[in-house]
Amino acid sequence: MALVTPRRGDVFLVDFSPTRGSEIRKTRPCVVVSPDELNLHLRTVIVAPLTTGSHPYPYRIPCRFTGKSGHVVADQVRTIDGERLVRRLGSLQPATLERVLVVLREMFAK
Question: How far apart are CA 47 and CA 45, in angstroms?
């Protein structure tokens, strides 16, 4: 696992290899969406990938991170082992994180 305990809203570089089928691929930035209480006590972390090459879809939230425009891909949320966390890159703006959490609540409430 990364040297620091991941916190909700942190963006980490995550190694997704190996992948299967239509899963999001490569090593890419992801935002931690799991609650801090889980992150403190479990070896797994729930993340949503960030991408710059995405088209807007209902469950993709526009964002800017490190000066690049892109989307948080909420429809590809994954639970990963902490060993997949390569390094911390920063954190999402609080307003963007709140939009991600609202979309996830809407997704799972349907």
Answer: 6
